[in-house]
Amino acid sequence: xxxxxxxxAKPGQFYMLRGIGSFMTLSRPISVFDVEADKxxxxxxxxxxxxxxxxxxxxxxxxxxxxxxxxxxxVSDYKDKxxxxxxxxxxxxxxxxxxxxxxxxxxxxxxxxxxxxAEQKQYLGQLYATHAPTTIHIDTDMSEKLDFSKYDAVxxxxxxxxxxxxxxxxxNVYVSLEKYMGCAVGACLSCTCDVAGKRVKVCKDxxxxxxxEVSYDDAIKLL
Length: 223
Ligand SMILES: Cc1cc2nc3c(=O)[nH]c(=O)nc-3n(C[C@H](O)[C@H](O)[C@H](O)COP(=O)(O)OP(=O)(O)OC[C@H]3O[C@@H](n4cnc5c(N)ncnc54)[C@H](O)[C@@H]3O)c2cc1C
Ligand code: FES
Hints:
alpha/beta; Rossmann fold; 2 domains
């Protein structure tokens, strides 16, 4: 979804999107996919009523958005360093704009064989490759497949179990957490979780955290 206007955002930040008027009581958090001089783009998957509403919008329709929110990935620390960008499922969304701002990134897109057609996967691969060398991994545990020793850092977004496993493979892993969000400004407490032994708000303190500081309680239960 592309929205015309003048926007500024850092890779890994997100906007809160909702329909015009009263539809959708709460806005939905969606990562910045790309920003250009006169527009911003979002990439989303239809999972519930909010994203279904977005999918029915037509060219010229209006939408309400607030943001950008959150901290974003540490781009300036790794601008010219070798960085692996690893996305799983819809977690690939923030990596496009991230790769655009890094000089020496390598992109790894982890996709599920059931989710997309071969043409769609090929399209995604070509799209991301405009910013950095891109490999698509189908139904693959990327934590077992990649050689992490060649990277200065790993920046990732996707299922928590994937990010938990990646955190074990490298010292400098930065993860973007996904939680249900009501306000995005730290007021409703719907997005709290444990990081570095403290209760934090993913919307305000994150969504990007040092992977080694995150408590992956839910992910560990799945192992
Ligand atoms: C920082 C951030 C960035 C994000 N970026 C993107 C992005 O770029 N693209 C994208 O597609 N998505 C993104 N998401 C996820 C997206 O915001 C959610 O999937 C959102 O809930 C979709 O809204 P919806 O109304 O379509 O679905 P919802 O109605 O919110 O439902 C989504 C799914 O979650 C289940 N669900 C709903 N509420 C709960 C609950 N309280 N507990 C457990 N399960 C529940 C529903 O049954 C359904 O399966 C992001 C989330 C965060 C926090
Ligand atoms: S979404 Fe309300 S505190 Fe984070």
